[in-house]
């Protein structure tokens, strides 16, 4: 098998660089054939219930290069490379891509690691060498024999171009984060990485909900000019599946919920001009700990406001709507009306 891998790699490089003997179109067809044949032979003797070898993952990822049509790379991103566009691209990423690629885009999530091959690190040189048009094609069409699906039905072309801008900004953001002296404008762009240091005085810490971006969706809601996704950690999801709270039993300690609010906007690029998430407004948290929060029904509450302009979270205060006090009981009053449901409003959405 190693010999096959080496031969396939040699043919791939020959197809790329032998410009004197074949046209660009012929080279592309040759590379597609070589990689597809090698994948067929290699993957036929492999199972998807174990981590792929380095050679398997490399070959499967190489398939992405050769499946991009030559004409796709000739398109031009119609959107300017501005902080606003990059920020909007990040919103699309967190809403659609972070479950597999992670909030930091490095692919280190339970879902991403279990894919075959694993979800790619979008900061890697392999991904960054694709131009905006090639990223656009991959996102819209997906890549067979890998875990990358087609997002054409879910992400508009306009948002896909925003995603391309955001993905290509990742190395600059990493470099800015690593630098001891970062200009204030770049500090704002990397502040998301510091959100887990936030804590509500006498209340919940953001770090208690680390990884919430990848939690399963419990349900969604639309209230006024806000859209929301209610997420749950594994303890919360498993409790729902046993019939809680409808069976009258309380949620177990360790159950956690996160409610991400977005400002609603109309997307004119999709059929019917649906209402979709715009910029993020805030994120609210609930944590069940019957001893720690005995004076608020066993639940601790926390709310963090998000400012899209500076890309920063801050603990909510009494000036926000609704007002939030600096303690773990900030949401207790309104939740008392569902005391019989263990203070939880949301039903588990059927999927």
UniProtKB/TrEMBL annotation:
Gene3D superfamilies: Cytochrome c-like domain (1.10.760.10), Cytochrome P460 (3.50.70.20)
Family annotation (CDD domains): cyt_P460_Mc-like (cd20753)
InterPro entries on file: Cyt_c-like_dom, Cyt_c-like_dom_sf, Cytochrome_P460, Cytochrome_P460_sp
Span of domain Cytochrome c: 84-171
Protein name listed in UniProt: Cytochrome c domain-containing protein
GO molecular function, one term: heme binding
Keywords from the named record: Heme, Iron, Metal-binding
Domain of life according to the entry: Bacteria
Coiled-coil features, chain-numbered ranges: none
One Pfam family in the UniProt entry: Cytochrome_P460
């Amino acid at each position: 098998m190693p010999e096959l891998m080496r031969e396939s790699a040699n043919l791939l490089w020959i197809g790329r660089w032998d410009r004197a003997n074949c046209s660009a179109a012929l080279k592309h067809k040759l590379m597609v054939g070589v990689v597809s044949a090698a994948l067929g032979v290699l993957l036929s003797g492999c199972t998807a219930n174990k981590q792929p070898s380095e050679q398997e993952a490399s070959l499967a990822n190489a398939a992405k290069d050769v499946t991009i049509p030559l004409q796709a790379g000739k398109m031009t991103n119609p959107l300017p490379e501005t902080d606003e566009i990059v920020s909007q691209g990040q919103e699309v990423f967190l809403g659609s891509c972070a479950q597999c690629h992670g909030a930091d885009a490095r692919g280190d999530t339970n879902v991403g690691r279990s894919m075959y091959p694993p979800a790619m690190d979008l900061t890697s040189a392999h991904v960054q060498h694709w131009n905006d048009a090639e990223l656009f094609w991959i996102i819209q069409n997906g890549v067979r024999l890998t875990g990358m699906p087609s997002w054409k039905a879910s992400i508009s072309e306009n948002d896909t171009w925003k995603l391309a801008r955001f993905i290509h900004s990742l190395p600059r953001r990493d470099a800015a984060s690593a630098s001891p002296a970062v200009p204030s404008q770049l500090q704002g762009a990397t502040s998301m990485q510091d959100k887990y240091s936030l804590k509500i005085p006498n209340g919940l810490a953001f770090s208690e909900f680390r990884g919430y971006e990848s939690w399963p969706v419990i349900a969604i809601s639309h209230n006024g000019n806000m859209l929301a996704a209610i997420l749950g950690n594994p303890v919360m999801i498993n409790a729902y599946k046993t019939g809680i709270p409808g069976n009258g039993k309380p949620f177990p300690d360790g159950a956690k919920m996160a409610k991400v609010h977005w400002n609603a906007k109309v997307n004119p690029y999709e059929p019917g001009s649906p209402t979709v998430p715009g910029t993020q407004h805030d994120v609210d948290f609930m944590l069940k700990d019957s001893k720690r929060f005995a004076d608020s029904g066993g639940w601790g509450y926390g709310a963090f406001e998000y400012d899209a302009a500076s890309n920063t979270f801050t603990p909510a205060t009494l000036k926000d709507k609704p007002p939030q006090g600096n303690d773990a009981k900030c949401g207790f009053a309104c939740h008392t009306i569902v005391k019989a449901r263990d203070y939880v409003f949301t039903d588990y959405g059927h999927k």
